[in-house]
From TrEMBL:
Transmembrane annotation, as ranges: 63-83, 95-119, 146-166, 246-270
Keywords of this entry: Membrane, Transmembrane, Transmembrane helix
Entry keyword annotation includes Thylakoid: no
Residues annotated as domain CWH43-like N-terminal: 25-273
InterPro entries: CWH43_N
UniProt KW Membrane keyword: yes
Organism: Nitzschia inconspicua
Record-given protein name: Frag1/DRAM/Sfk1 family protein
One Pfam family here: Frag1
Length: 293
């Protein structure tokens, strides 16, 4: 059971600002991608390059770094909010493994999205990986590894959370029992039942749709990433002339996968607003009991 001390202001535990953080982080993520895509001068025939290629050159390089750094900070605060409030406290009571995987996945996503934003691909990446070039640099490899950390972490977090979203069984009778048995004047806590649904129907459906999309797009985007292809020399790297179609298709799947994860994290704003409303109702009920006493 998640307990709220009687002498605390339960509504302050979920402020309006906290409720807006997930949505704000999602907006920054989408805005960053749109901004660098708009500014970047794309090679002829390339219409949907992988996101990493949008941050190589100036001025988009600075936009890429700042945008994803802010996105990572907001995402980190979002994950912190979820654990400081009731979501993963209740998940932990149901399944410690799910709570742990969700926590680790969230941290990995934060580290990955922030790291790949700060450590971008080398400015001469496209030239370096052409036949006869020096190939991928250590900076390029580190960027790709951090991007992989984001994808793996986001998948671990979203899949764990979505699986639990359908395990929370509504229990209005339990809520009413807790409220009626709690003594507002005794200092005993009023508890939120673990079976109280954490996610609204809209939130569950939205999260499920995001997971379904990412399950299809993310593996394709990673397995067939252009930097994993073979160029004409038999070396790993992009062959821009021969593989333009592949670059476009794989870039598009990456946009879809990242977009799904962005929407998933943004949907936590719905859940936090619902939790805030629930806590307000709980506080009003507790105040009414005190007046009756």
């Amino acid at each position: 059971m998640v307990t709220l001390p009687d002498n605390s202001s339960v509504v302050e535990k979920v402020s309006v600002t906290s409720c807006c953080i997930p949505l704000l982080g999602s907006c920054f993520g989408v805005g960053t991608i749109l901004a660098v895509y708009t500014v970047t001068e794309l090679p002829p025939g390339i219409h949907t390059p992988p996101i990493s290629l949008l941050g190589c050159q100036q001025p988009e390089h600075t936009i890429y770094q700042l945008g994803f750094s802010v996105t990572g900070l907001l995402l980190g605060y979002c994950v912190l909010i979820l654990f400081r409030n009731h979501f993963y406290l209740q998940i932990q009571e149901y399944s410690p493994l799910l709570a742990l995987s969700g926590w680790i996945g969230g941290i990995m996503a934060v580290v990955g999205v922030t790291g790949q934003g700060i450590i971008t691909l080398h400015p001469d990446f496209l030239q370096n990986i052409k036949p006869g070039g020096i190939g991928m640099t250590q900076q390029d490899r580190l960027h790709q590894q951090l991007a992989l950390v984001f994808f793996v972490g986001a998948a671990l977090h979203t899949y764990s959370t979505c699986w639990f979203a359908y395990r929370g069984i509504p229990s209005n009778e339990k809520m009413e029992s807790d409220l009626s048995n709690a003594s507002p004047t005794s200092g005993s806590p009023i508890s939120l039942p673990a079976k109280q649904p954490l996610f609204s129907t809209t939130s569950r459906h939205l999260k499920t749709a995001c997971v379904a999309v990412s399950l299809l797009a993310a593996p394709i985007a990673e397995m067939y990433h252009p930097t994993r292809l073979k160029n004409d020399t038999g070396e790993n790297g992009i062959a821009p002339v021969n593989n333009k179609r592949i670059v476009n298709v794989i870039g598009l799947t990456q946009y879809v996968a990242v977009g799904a994860y962005i929407v998933f994290f943004g949907s936590y704003s719905l859940d936090l607003f619902q939790l805030r409303q629930r806590l307000q109702q709980l506080q009003q009920t507790r105040t009414g009991k005190r007046k009756d006493e």
